[in-house]
Design goal:
22% helix, 176 residues, alpha/beta, 3 helices, binds inosinic acid, globular, six-stranded mixed β-sheet, three-stranded antiparallel β-sheet
Length: 176
């Protein structure tokens, strides 16, 4: 594991409370819809699994994989699809669940890709947003927390593949 100096930015309790709130709001919005909840791998895995347990509705679960960071702490600016959905989303209401919106490139790429498959609607939820890092306009329906433009790890988010299993979100003080 790499040796990063990390301080807690969002505690486990704070994250869990907010995820429960988002679950309630999304339950209201998605009731009665034919929902396909799409987890954006790998970073959203924790947020997704906690969030869907707070959704009091019927839903199908799907996974999509993208990569833009390779092993770096900065976006390469190029989004690559690494895993596609397993079933059709035509006429379904997609709930697209992201870990973090940084430049906005990944979410916009995914929305365009999924829109082309003719869903009834796409609702987007991201646990984190770095407003100061946005490079393009990016509309997100539900945001857990807005955070400063610093690199963060934990609760699914990684640095070079490590730290995803931390139960809190940590801010990286120094990258060695
Ligand atoms: P974007 O395309 O720049 O908005 O970046 C989206 C993806 O980059 C996210 O889904 C994350 O996987 C990754 N990412 C962005 N910022 C961070 C960070 O601070 N820590 C870890 N991963 C990040």
């Amino acid at each position: 594991m790499s040796n990063l100096e990390i301080t807690t930015l969002l505690s486990e309790e704070k994250i869990q409370n907010r995820v429960a709130e988002l679950g309630k709001e999304l339950t209201k919005k998605l009731e009665g819809e034919e929902v396909v909840a799409v987890c954006v791998l790998k970073g959203a895995l924790m947020f997704y699994s906690d969030l869907i347990r707070h959704l009091n509705i019927d839903l199908k679960s799907e996974f999509i994989g993208v990569s833009s960071y390779a092993d770096r702490a900065k976006s390469s600016g190029e989004v690559k699809l690494t895993l596609d959905l397993n079933s059709s989303v035509k006429d379904k209401h997609i709930l697209l669940v992201e870990d973090i919106v940084d430049t906005g490139l990944t979410l916009n790429y995914l929305k365009k890709l999924l829109q082309a498959r003719q869903p009834k609607a796409i609702t987007t939820a991201s646990l984190l947003l770095k407003p100061d890092a946005l490079q393009e306009k990016c509309d997100i329906d539900y945001v857990g927390f807005e955070i400063p433009n610093d690199f963060v790890v934990g609760y699914g988010l990684d640095y070079a593949g490590a730290y995803r299993n931390l139960p809190f979100i940590g801010q990286v003080i120094s990258l060695n």
